# Entry
Amino acid sequence: MGRYVIRRLLQMIPVFFGTTLLIFLMVNVMGDPIAGLCGDRQCDPATAAQLRTEFGLDKPVWQQYLTYMGNVFTGDFGTAFNGQEVTELMGTAFPITIRLTLVAIVFEIVIGISLGVVTGLRRGRPVDTAVLILTLIVISIPTFVTGLLLQLLLGVEWGVIKPSVSPEAPLNELLIPGLVVASVSLAYVTRLTRTSIAENSRADYVRTATAKGLPRRRVVIRHLLRNSLIPVVTFIGTDVGALMGGAIVTERIFNIHGVGYQLYQGILRQNSQTVVGFVTVLVLVFLAANLIVDLLYAVLDPRIRYA
Amino acid sequence: MPEQTPDEAISAAGAGGPTDLALAEGDSLEKTPGGPEGTGPDTKPQSLWSDAWRDLRRNPVFIISALIILFLVVISIWPQLIASGDPLDCDLGNAQQGSQPGHPFGYDGQGCDVYTRVVYGARNSVTVGICSTVGVAVIGSVLGALAGFFGGWWDAILSRLTDIFFGIPVVLGGLVFLSVVTSSTVWPVIGFIVLLGWPQIARIARGSVITAKHNDYVQAARALGASNGRMMLRHIAPNAVAPVIVVATIALGTYISLEATLSFLGVGLKPPAVSWGIDISAASQYIRNAPHMLLWPAGALAVTVLAFIMLGDAVRDALDPKLR
# Structure
């Protein structure tokens, strides 16, 4: 187990540097980082040259990348366009997005898995067909449409929720945005669980468990569900990163000042420090989530051993 | 069960696990062109593809989605067939007005006819969907198949490379990458989707090629002195391509959705291009007064994505005997 974790951590290193380098290059292609610093006017050439030397932008890109990464490892993520430290922005933005992501994952697990179990055990019945059609519809409607529609209906027409979330983003205001972030993944979780349950419900161990007289509840939860969860856990794990990044759209619709909002501002104002910094942290979250998923396999299926 | 090839190839795409359900079909499932395949004694040999096609023709989901897609393709090529106006012919005097005779969907914030714009918007969505999928499928399956077939250092590099691309959140990458582009054509968006989309297909192609290459008939072909190219094209590819097709068809719908999302954020297609994403983004400002501006393009987008995803679902059901 320990050796497996170490090997996986070592494998993460090239992926981490590759991803951050890719984003770094993209941001460098994105445009002149100096242009954003002088507001809407063009920068004075002398000032621009001085700023360039000051920020090390006159050096080749690979050297800039190395300097940047060196700073990151000492906890220095640079300065955002408004003079705030990027770490400070992260300090306010990440708690909000993490809360939003947690709400979304709870929705995925609770609603997605229960719907999946219910339909998987009743394949071909009306409940199953209805839920399947519902998941198809949810998958087909892009998140930003779902978000706008829910905002229109619940926020504007019926006044059930506030159409935009207050800056502190308390948990109760994040419920609907969280549902929106989760919606597409929720449908996938339902379908995955359904397929997996339906496949395993014919397995020998289920028949054995039923035959030895276990109550149906216990057969389903302890035997069937536990064995069916592996693909679902994989999906949810890889989804964590996508949820945090994909929250850009939802955060924009509901005016939530989380990671997506800061990133969007950073991109609009061509502030490479903010963009690269936030993406670097998101990549780390994604890699950590994948590692945790792999370790969870052993909990779910004792046959899987890590040498 | 050495002859159980198509099942194994396909289960590479799904959750995996032994397939004991489709044994009966498995015997009559496959006659690879050139493959020394033993078929059942009195069952008529049928390929996976003709079997799948027979299944598809009877599937109402397939028929409905295929009709919708056919309709979308026709109006993307000839939008004039059902919309006589010009999507860029706008009169501010009509801004935000509701449904009127001759203009069933009303007008948008610039006074353009919403119906005409919805019809013309299909072209960009369908183009992005189809071109990105073709690009992703070709690049992804070639690279993935090479990695799966040859293994070794090329495989190691490709696996790490796909890990790297998977680490980038798609919408985020789109914002960064496309925010520099000023062109209002569909090509930057397609290029971006291909750039971030190919690893998904590459992984699947790699997996199914690895499953297929260990089969006895491939070993037999190798023993008979077949070249690498011949083994790949004649023996492995026909048995490994099904999962790629399934995933690519479903991905097509999600690419259309992605284009709309990027256009909504202002980095995908850019005006004067006509796109449902752009129209929805513009309509979101008037959501209180003129919800029809939002609902029509949003509905068209949802139906389009739904049609492609349903098609993908039907194709998967037909190609995956495990689900029968």
Q: What stands out?
A: DSSP finds eleven helices and no strands in chain A. Chain A touches chain B through 54 residues (CB under 8 Å). The radius of gyration of chain A is 23 Å. Chain A has a mean pLDDT of 81.
